[in-house]
Amino acid sequence: MILICVLMYIGFASGQKVIQMNYCSIDEDHLRIDCKYAISAESPEVFCKYTQGERLLDTTDPDEEQHAPFKNRAKARIFPGNNCRLLFKNLPMGKSNFTCNIKQPDSATASKTSVIEKKLLLPCCAWSILLQSYSGLLLTLVTLPMLLEIHWL
């Protein structure tokens, strides 16, 4: 039993992992999602796909077919730095779930889901990505001058 647990742990530890999802609006109705992931060094080949429930928005896997209503609305691509990006047109009002799935051959799929509300989307720029990704660092940088002034009083 212990041997099985150890083998399963080694299998999962050597696989891929979704680290973070960032999202922003390109235009009023267009969404961009960046999915950062880590992969095992054993297999450089990786496939990325975005889903909404059972519906496949788009994928980089040539063996899977995109859900028909999304053929002209969604495009997934892999970029250097282990980043899978989805560009999604005509985002509806309200909340939508988007799941990023990362898969290496002969390995389990790693996934992460984000609930995105259209009216709360920030425009895509370095500042909005910084706000989503590094809020603790940003808070420190903003409050540091204030803390230094208090110290000098």
UniProtKB/TrEMBL annotation:
This is Immunoglobulin V-set domain-containing protein. The keyword NADP does not apply. Keywords: Cell membrane, Disulfide bond, Glycoprotein, Immunoglobulin domain, Lipoprotein, Membrane, Signal. Residues 1-15 form the signal peptide. GO terms for biological process: cell adhesion; integrin-mediated signaling pathway; positive regulation of focal adhesion assembly; regulation of cell migration. One of its GO terms (molecular function) is integrin binding. It is found in: Cell membrane. GO terms for cellular component: dendrite; external side of plasma membrane; focal adhesion; membrane raft; myelin sheath.
